[in-house]
Amino acid sequence: MAEQTAPRVDVDDLGQYVGKPVQVWGWLFNSRSSGRIVFLLVRDGTGLVQAVVSQRDVEGRVWDQARRLTQESSLKVTGTVRADERAPGGFELLVQDLELVHLAVDYPITPKEHGVDFLLDHRHLWLRSRRQHAILRIRSTLVGAVREFFDREGFVLVDAPILTPAAVEGTTTLFRTDYFGTPAYLSQSGQLYMEAAAMAFGRAYCFGPTFRAEHSKTRRHLMEFWMVEPEMAWAGLDDICRLAEGLVSHVVGRVLERHRPELALLERDTAPLERVRPPFPRVTYDEAIEILRKNGAAVEWGADFGGDEETILSNAFDRPVFVTHYPAHIKAFYMKPAPDRPEVVLGADLLAPEGYGEIIGGGQRIDDLELLMRRIEEHHLPKEAYEWYLDLRRYGSVPHGGFGMGIERVLAWICGLPHVRETIPFPRTLYRLYP
Ligand code: NSS
């Protein structure tokens, strides 16, 4: 009997089995019936396939089962694969047998519209829906492409700790915890450790979760996000920008290569993504101020750019754009001043186009011991916690730098999403720690 011999196959691979009996194990996505036929839309994680149950061709038991199935019930379907251009995925199954594994009762996410809070409360189930599935598949490819790029460029993966004694990006966004009686903080960035790694390996990167207690509820901020942070010894601002544009172009290219169907499902216009090729335009902070003023923004020299300014700037270019040479006082303590103009630093942010704004922040680091010690004092940081970091300037200091790229912001841009919350499997936002 076909039921016993039919191999279990992923929906993705059905094309290799045309004309043959197979089993698909999955969940009922949707169903409809028309007279003596029931159409079951089955998803198995790799794809969706329509399984056609015809009352004429199956036993009564199978027919009754097919009509009783509810959304998200788990099942095993046995049927013959048929190529059909109109079917989702290009193939359908002519069902011979059906085994109900578990009957789902009142699945909360129905094909009707739901509010975003409801969906986020049900994030553990929302992951099964098509859009979320597409986004997280692209995320998986994005992460792989990042690793592929750094492997190819000769970077060594050096994991940074999550529990840390000191701040990297300012003390106001630290998540504090208790480390057997002494305070510890969840890592805001692995950068300082990557500087140590760069002095050991030349080129190193880390890629992991980072944490910021951001008291802001914007479409760009998460409390927990994933950041990839390369760091290079013997590097200046230009080297850092070239690495960043190489990385961004590579990962966008990979997604375009592998995820046309997902991008189409997300209704993403891919034309702006096709333009993402190096070199990217670069403007200085001074030039950015000019652009902002021309677009009607009232900004003073010395002010940091918020979401609105970033949106204006990123809309002014059709490709990602670097903004360099920010005023020193709005940037982190470790940023190296420009030699000819110490009030600005050799830092670079990369703004994604189409209003997406900052996706990368980085630059060249202070390599001089005295200056770094002064900055630590000026920023009221506890010097003891940074002694090891100062050692990097005591023993063979060299010009160096790197950057951090936030995966969720890059993914939101690539997928054309209005908010970062859908780009991470379980988002941590200002008022959300559940599920
Ligand atoms: O604060 S950054 O601009 N820079 C750093 O953390 C450096 N220490 C990185 C380095 O040079 N190694 O953050 C870098 C990126 C930023 O451009 C965003 O893409 C992302 O990290 N980022 C965030 N994504 C989501 N949510 C929040 N809250 C967030 N903060 C930064």
From TrEMBL:
Pfam families in the cross-refs? tRNA-synt_2, tRNA_anti-codon
Please list the GO terms describing molecular function. Answer: asparagine-tRNA ligase activity
Task: State its Enzyme Commission number(s).
Answer: 6.1.1.22
Which reactions does this protein catalyse?
Answer: tRNA(Asn) + L-asparagine + ATP = L-asparaginyl-tRNA(Asn) + AMP + diphosphate + H(+)
Q: Where is the Aminoacyl-transfer RNA synthetases class-II family profile domain?
A: 136-435
Location in or out of the cell: Cytoplasm
Q: What is its main location?
A: cytoplasm
What CDD domains is this protein classified in? AsxRS_core
Database matches in InterPro entries: Aa-tRNA-synt_II (IPR004364), aa-tRNA-synth_II (IPR006195), aa-tRNA-synth_II/BPL/LPL (IPR045864), Asn-tRNA-ligase (IPR004522), Asp/Asn-tRNA-synth_IIb (IPR002312), NA-bd_OB-fold (IPR012340), NA-bd_OB_tRNA (IPR004365)
**Which top-level group of life is the source organism from?**
Bacteria
* Assigned keywords, A-Z: Aminoacyl-tRNA synthetase, ATP-binding, Cytoplasm, Ligase, Nucleotide-binding, Protein biosynthesis
Family, per entry:
Belongs to the class-II aminoacyl-tRNA synthetase family.
Outline the subunit composition: Homodimer.
- Kindly give the NCBIfam families that the UniProt entry links to this protein: asnS, PRK03932.1, PRK05159.1
Know the name of this protein?
Asparagine--tRNA ligase
What is the organism of origin for this protein?
Answer: Carboxydichorda subterranea
The encoding gene: asnS
